[in-house]
Amino acid sequence: MAIVRPLPDSVDGHRRLALDSPIDRQPIDEIEVGTTEDVERVVAKARVAQPDWAALSVRERARIVRSAVQILVDCREEIIGTVCAETGKPRIEALMVEIVPACDFLNYWSRYAHRVLRPHRQRLHGSLRPLKKLYIHHQPLGVVGVITPWNAPFVLSLNPVVQALLAGNTVILKPSEVTPRSGEWVARILHKAGVPDDVVQVLHGDGETGAALVDADIDKVCFTGSVGTGRKIAASCAPRLVPCTLELGGKDAMIVCADADLERAAAGAVYLSMFNTGQVCMSIERVYVVDSVADEFIRRVTQRAAAVTYGAGDADMGPLFWDRQLDVVTRHIDDAKAKGADIAVGGAPVAGNGLYFQPTVVVGATHAMQLMTEETFGPVVAITRVRDEDEAIRLANDSHYGLSGSVFTKDSDKARRIAARLTTGSVVHNDAAVIYGVPEAPFGGRKDSGVGHVNGTDALRGYTQPQPILLDRWQTERGSVWYPYSQKTIQSLEAVVKYGFGTKLGRWLTS
Which pTM does this prediction carry? Predict the structure, then answer.
């Protein structure tokens, strides 16, 4: 439902939106836009439901959530049908991008949440150890607002919702108005699994609804989307000191070293730039290839890209999911042409009613072009020759974005050395994008690419407040330095400084 049109307001005054297919622009559905009053009502219900949900143990919450795995498996064809109708992506990509990782996230988080969130004892250091015991508890934050995008509308909604629920929060999900029903499926399968209706709720609407949710009485915002909207959310959260996780845009670079397997690198450059029609925040948007292997690499990329099929049905590549994105991709290619780039393959929208853009290879791209500095989010391989790996690293870091990146080389040690010099949230060796599907990895961006992590231990614990509880071992009548102060108090403190930190043995014993 990638083409959104306004409709006359409903009888009760709600704005309505018509949703048309990106494949052929035929009408598919309509939604009502949630108002501020709707948001307040939903938040109030979530607030009431949260204590009972949090009162369940992590294991019990996980048992309920984990039963959603089988429901997802059983409902997969219906979910795939919804995703394909809304986005136009091929069935294989709906299965690969949405269903398989969603099953894995559900299974993983529900299995390991209790290990991450259970109260645990933290060993104390030195002089404190004989006197105190420290325990860490993880308390739910309360009500969490999750606002999700249109490019992977099911899995990018499910992953944060499941984490927040397992941590003991109630959740209000606002999926993109471009793909509302795909996001809605997350709540549907969780409700079937036994999660109470008011514990996870869905609000439909556009940016106005999302802004109302961010401004509502909630305890955290998790947002995946554009940098511009992310900045607005951060600005709204800041005065109220509401925490937010922002997974924003990317302009990921691929570095092709002189010793790379060129067949794999060329295949990777095409696929990792074009799968999901290039609409993946970790897709390859810039390729820097060392000059000594550039000719052969470009030949192979051109050959592979020319063979990519596009269209409805069983084609390799579907349409762009949003009509505005077609304008962005077209503008970037036109700008590259005007500034001297060579369009080796494709380079134009496809005539007709659908939102199709040809698989495209651009050679001779430079940082003077929008194609290399702004997020394109389309099926484009943009290639730049570099003298050596040092120049590739410098250019890769020359970006406002810092989400992820990839290094193609046969030498894994070299890949780690290069990765250590890249200012990105993650780096992948001989691959890309797959890093989001690794729940153990703390996935998040640097620079304009975001704040916080959406995977890894920190992500799950980020939906809680860690509460340290310091217990007294001996329960004496008074503390060693309580009133009244005396000369003995001073002498004791002086001894701590002199013997505890003034000698090597003392520093070792107190560490």
Answer: 0.96
Annotated catalytic residue, options 184, 281, 374, 389: 281
CA-atom Rg of the chain in angstroms = 26
CA–CA gap between residue 92 and residue 97 (Å, rounded) = 8
Q: How far, in Å, CA of 337 to CA of 384, rounded?
A: 14
Catalytic pick among 86, 177, 184, 247: 247
Q: Read off the pLDDT band of 509 (50, 70, 90).
A: confident
State yes or no: is 222 an active-site residue: no
Answer whether 476's CB lies under 8 Å from 482's CB.
Answer: no
Over range 236-258, report the average pLDDT.
98
**Cβ(153)–Cβ(85) under 8 Å?**
no
Q: What's the half-sphere exposure (Cβ side, CA atoms, 13 Å) at 157?
A: 34
Pairing of strands 132-140, 464-472: antiparallel
Quick one: how far is CA 281 from the chain centroid? 8
Q: Where residue 401 falls among pLDDT bands split at 50, 70, 90?
A: very high
**How far is Cα 172 from Cα 145, in angstroms, rounded to an integer?**
5
The string of pLDDT tens digits covering residues 160-191 is 999 999 999 999 999 999 999 999 999 999 99
- Of the candidates 127, 128, 163, the residue with the CA atom closest to the CA atom of residue 144: 163
**Omega cis (within 30) before 484:** yes
pLDDT per residue as tens digits for the range 19-63: 999 999 999 999 999 999 999 999 999 999 999 999 999 999 999
What distance in Å separates the CA atoms of residue 95 and residue 463, rounded to the nearest whole number? Answer: 28
Q: Residues, the chain, total?
A: 511
Annotated catalytic, 77?
Answer: no
Element (DSSP H or E) covering residue 488:
helix 487-495
Distance of CA 347 to the CA centre of its chain: 29
What residue has token string 């290399």? 372
Q: What is the DSSP string of 281-314?
A: TTSEEEEEEEHHHHHHHHHHHHHHHHT--BSSSS
Nearest one of 262, 158, 244, 276 to 450, comparing CA atoms: 244
123-144 CB burial, b ≥16 within 10 A, e <16: eeeeeeeeeeeeeeebebbbbb
